[in-house]
């Protein structure tokens, strides 16, 4: 590999979950000003301008690459308008599959928008090749005679990815025409930190101008992207280099989680069937998702409840609602008391109160804040005085407000172009490969780090055995307690599926797959659970698939309908209604009994030091060991026969899913 002193140009590719892009700088520009980095401005057919383009790939029906980014979105939308999309292969937001897939191999496949499969390596390669070729064309307009031999490429990856996923990206880049000896793989939060090292962030004593971080400074790097949240802690060394003093960690709590909750909200209003029918209208689906991606950035954290956010509702969604439910969205919204004063539909505009709009961000921000609090209690983090926020999701006013409120003693720094910090930092890293003392992945996966050539389907390295899955089936009125249960189980090493962390793509397909892949299904029984059609579908499907069912009673004496009584039969249940959310000793005692019961069926993995550091992966596994249902132990006296008492009606405002 050419030494940094001989490089003519460094180019970086940031392959994101939601958006992707590239940037580059010539050596003479870097020497004058390291922050002078060029990036491309992308445009869509709807006149939207952006410094990145959407991570979407479109293939023709014969499997030949057609387009990438906004161009792919617009083409697929046009095909759908003309009714000609059948057979075309449209992939969007597929990067997270490398995080979720724990048995990664060369035959790993992705499903497109129409359910057709294609080898993942082909999809990733096509995307990287497009960005590489586009960058080469842009560079040639500035300097004639640039060739691939003149360029060092840097490809960024999330720090929390497995080594196998990072190796997969290296091989995809090489298949895209980037020579292995001209390629570096770098971790996203680290190169973002390197970029911010050059930003004026503090004023040194006796000096009037702002300077970069001084020697000895410790700061958190919070890289909040569309898919993952990477968190690490750096310290500035005497020579100006950066040292990683806490290993990067995080989870899949990125900005796309807000999108998922918004879709759950709409599905809860019009029903899963109507929402699924709407999503089959590909032209409106593309525009709808694009519009929301832009709109969610404008939601304010401190807006009063009567300051409403407006979301455009396509006519095809209204039509799907009428066809499925026999009534329009306006009628449904007005009929639900939890939406009174909080939601209305005016022509094609859904008006949502500030409270509900902020609720969309609740789960991802809660996990980010909780994780940061646990991290900052570690001894190695003492002396941290700043939180550096980078990545597209860091530009969200709601996320910024949560960080400010929960960490008032730390100074929050958000660069003006936080969404480009990774991209520009990767370019600087190409010229300064020794600027980060630890953590850069290129030292682990180099040109000589190859997969086994003897087996096309050989697993990639460093994969660990998987534990069997538990699914939590519940009604959203009980979500706070269920979230505590989720955190406790994942902390103890169990792999748990919960909709707020794992719901992706079509709702019914995701739940169906979750049940297929679970050995144990925990049913959280409540009044609202028994009344919910969606909950009934989950419970009946779990029984049909002979899953081990463990009931948790979430309310005292709910009226259990016949269908649920038949499913639970003589099963014994665990009481979660006889103590409050804040009664930690009682909760810990009950969970100890629950974990003992679950351990009769599933062997947990190693305990996690931090709860929910990573969300449970989704595996493709349908086999289960045994078909008989074992009853939990009653030795501690918490498992008793289900009582039937007076029915009590309770509706929680803001309920998004099981309605």
Corresponding CATH architecture of the largest domain = 2-Layer Sandwich
Proportion of helical residues? 25-40%
Strand content: 15-25%
Through-space gap between termini: 59 Å
Task: Label the overall shape.
Answer: globular
The H-level CATH homologous superfamily of the largest domain, spelled out, is: ATPase, nucleotide binding domain
| Count of DSSP H/I helices | 22
Question: What's the total count of β strands?
Answer: 29
Q: Compute the gyration radius: what is it?
A: 26 Å
Low-confidence stretches: 203-210, 439-465, 609-659
CATH topology of the largest domain: Nucleotidyltransferase, domain 5
Main sheet: strands, sense, barrel: 6 strands, mixed
CATH class of the largest domain: Alpha Beta
What is the average of the pLDDT values? Answer: 80
Query: What's the number of structural domains?
Result: 3
Question: What is the gist of this entry?
Answer:
This protein is an alpha/beta fold and 659 residues long. Strand 24 (469-473), helix 16 and strand 25 (495-497) form a beta-alpha-beta unit.
Structure description:
The chain has 659 residues and is an alpha/beta fold. The protein has three domains: 4-188, ATPase, nucleotide binding domain (Nucleotidyltransferase, domain 5, 2-Layer Sandwich), CATH 3.30.420.40; 213-414, Nucleotidyltransferase, domain 5, CATH 3.30.420.40; 469-640, Rossmann fold, CATH 3.40.50. It contains 22 helices and 29 strands. The strands form eight sheets. Strands 1, 2, 3, 6, 12 and 13 form a six-stranded mixed β-sheet that branches. Strands 25-24-26-27-28-29 form a six-stranded mixed β-sheet, sandwiched between helices. α4 packs across α5 (163-175) and α8 runs antiparallel to α10. The model is unreliable at 203-210, 439-465 and 609-659 (pLDDT under 50).
